[in-house]
């Protein structure tokens, strides 16, 4: 009989308790029967009359005093009690052993069934090429889908869902392809990244993305819903992030107008949480290698999620002689760009650049004249460390809307993250702990706002 659910243990232990009662009852019955067969001398009764005087003489019998008889009886009683106690202990030990064995067998059975079910799902999903979208209902970016199994989707389904990849459904464009809005069956709206694999590196990044996002589950890491391989085209299907990327919000037509001071800190906190999961909780830990504002996506509530794992790598498994520096200009750490030295501190540097973008509203690299470019780091460092100048270089959208103490704290974190020497940079976990007290409770931090924000003039 199969046992499942939380109540399974009760059905297993009930027979064991019955067995224990039967064992104890039988042990007590045997011991009482043994005791009944032992003659007890009544010390208060007079001796029986002797046979006739002319009967043959019998050997002499040693007389037992009443006190000695009582002592013998007490010793016998103690001996029987000891035997009963030993029998009870042995019976209890037997019950415990049976209970542990039954629990272990039940746990082993459940794990074996789960493993078989998981293998069946994988074989089914990999084998038929039809759309096997998990039951998601309406997507909510605060809920995580099961990414241990990524569904293979049929090309015709995705083609229909995107209006045959119509330009009016384009959400964004990248170096290797476009991202389209897709309306799937059941009212599910998703984002489809279409890659044209004209080069081997695109195929490699596609496989890398599937590998990492199939394992990583975190509220601040993008969820992948499915994939498709069709001739030279590779497609990845993600949950839809309604507010696009942080880059679009900051540097697009709105110029950051939808991002208040606290929303910006919330985005930084969410990104730090996602990155902290990669660095501290994945085994082996993961170096993203391409943290930037365009890879931080925002849902309808401005919850931020890290995306694009095409360049990600497992920490400790790389050889700097075999790895060409990868990333985006303006975000790449100097030690990685110059010497190929790659650590999790490289991601911290890129996160610091994003933090500067949030504070200053400037792009990571901007042109100065016709032939010269300047990075946000080199432009900001002489001014951001000066408290008298810092309020004047803040993004005009949020200028004079925050407590200056909080501004100085965030600026200090950004400065530490973009230090040229990696050992001087903090761990992302330390960055996370520094940001939590600055974000309101309702946005995921611990800050409780009592009065109106202090206006600086």
From TrEMBL:
Gene3D superfamilies named among the record's database cross-references: Phosphorylase Kinase, domain 1 (3.30.200.20), Transferase(Phosphotransferase) domain 1 (1.10.510.10)
Keywords noted in UniProt: ATP-binding, Kinase, Membrane, Nucleotide-binding, Serine/threonine-protein kinase, Transferase, Transmembrane, Transmembrane helix
GO cellular component labels: plasma membrane
Residue stretches spanning the membrane: 6-24, 84-105
Top-level taxon of origin: Eukaryota
SMART domains the UniProt entry points to: S_TKc
GO BP annotations, alphabetical order: signal transduction
Protein family (similarity comment): Belongs to the protein kinase superfamily.
Name this protein carries in UniProt: Protein kinase domain-containing protein
Higher taxonomy: Eukaryota, Viridiplantae, Streptophyta, Embryophyta, Tracheophyta
Designated gene of the protein: LOC104583595
């Amino acid at each position: 009989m199969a046992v499942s659910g939380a109540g399974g243990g009760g059905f297993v232990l009930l027979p064991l308790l019955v067995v224990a009662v039967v064992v104890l009852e039988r042990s007590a019955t045997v011991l009482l029967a043994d005791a009944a067969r032992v003659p007890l001398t009544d010390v208060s009764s007079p001796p029986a009359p002797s046979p006739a005087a002319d009967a043959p003489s019998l050997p002499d019998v040693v007389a037992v005093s009443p006190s000695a008889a009582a002592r013998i009886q007490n010793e016998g009683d103690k001996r029987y009690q000891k035997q009963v106690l030993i029998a009870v202990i042995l019976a209890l030990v037997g019950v415990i052993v049976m209970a542990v064995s039954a629990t272990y067998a039940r746990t082993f059975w459940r794990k074996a069934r789960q493993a078989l079910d998981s293998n069946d799902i994988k074989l089914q999903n990999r084998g038929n090429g039809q759309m096997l979208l998990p039951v998601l209902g309406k997507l909510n970016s605060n809920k995580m889908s099961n990414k241990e199994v990524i569904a293979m989707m049929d090309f015709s389904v995705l083609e229909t869902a995107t209006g045959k990849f119509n330009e009016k459904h384009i959400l964004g464009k990248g170096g290797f392809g476009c991202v389209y809005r897709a309306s799937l069956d059941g009212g599910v709206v998703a984002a489809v990244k279409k890659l044209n694999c004209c080069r081997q590196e695109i195929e490699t990044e596609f496989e890398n993305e599937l590998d990492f996002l199939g394992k990583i589950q975190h509220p601040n890491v993008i969820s992948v819903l499915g994939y498709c391989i069709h001739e030279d085209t590779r497609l990845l299907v993600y949950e839809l992030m309604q507010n696009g990327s942080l880059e679009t919000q900051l540097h697009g037509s709105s110029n950051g107008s939808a991002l208040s001071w606290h929303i910006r800190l919330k985005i930084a906190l969410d990104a730090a949480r996602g990155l902290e999961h990669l660095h501290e909780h994945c085994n082996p830990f993961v170096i993203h290698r391409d943290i930037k504002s365009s890879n931080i996506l925002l849902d309808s509530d401005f919850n931020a999620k890290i995306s694009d794992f095409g360049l990600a790598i497992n920490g400790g498994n790389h050889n700097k002689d075999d790895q060409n520096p990868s990333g985006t200009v303006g975000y790449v750490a100097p030690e990685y760009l110059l010497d190929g030295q790659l650590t999790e501190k490289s991601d911290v540097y890129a996160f610091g650049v994003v933090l500067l973008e949030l504070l200053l509203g400037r792009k990571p690299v901007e042109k100065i004249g016709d032939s010269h470019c300047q990075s946000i780091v080199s432009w900001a460092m002489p001014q951001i460390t000066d408290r008298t100048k810092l309020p004047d270089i803040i993004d005009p959208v949020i200028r004079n809307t925050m407590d200056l103490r909080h501004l100085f704290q965030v600026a200090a974190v950004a400065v530490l993250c973009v230090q040229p020497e990696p050992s001087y940079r903090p761990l992302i976990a330390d960055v996370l702990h520094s940001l939590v007290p600055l974000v309101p409770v309702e946005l995921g931090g611990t800050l409780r706002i009592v009065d109106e924000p202090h206006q600086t003039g």
